[in-house]
Amino acid sequence: MHHPQPKLERETPLRHPGLTDCQQVVEKTRKQIEEEIIEVGKRTIIDLGIHGLHPELVKIVGRMKFRSSYGQNLLQHSREDIKGKSNYCKHFVGSFGLL
User: Which of 87, 86, 80, 68 is nearest to 44 (CA)?
Assistant: First the structure.
C-alpha cells in the first residue's frame, strides 16, 4: 500500500553558512574581472591610437583578452594584425608620395 509523503513547505529558503561567503567571492571576482576588461580595453585602444570609442566597444576590446582561437589569444592576434596592416598602409601611401 502506497502512503503519500506529506508536502513540506518552507517560507524561507534553506541557507548554508558558507554559501553567502561563496557568493561574495564570486561577486568580488566578477567585479575584478570587469575592471580588468575595461582597463585592458582602454590601454589597447590608446596603444593603437584610437580615440572616442564608445564604452561598450572598449569592453568588447577588453574581453578579447579572455578569448582564444586555435590556442591564440584573440586580443594579441588582433593587435599584431592591426599594426601590420597599419604599417602596410603607411608604406603603400608613402610610396605614392602622399605622406
Answer: 80
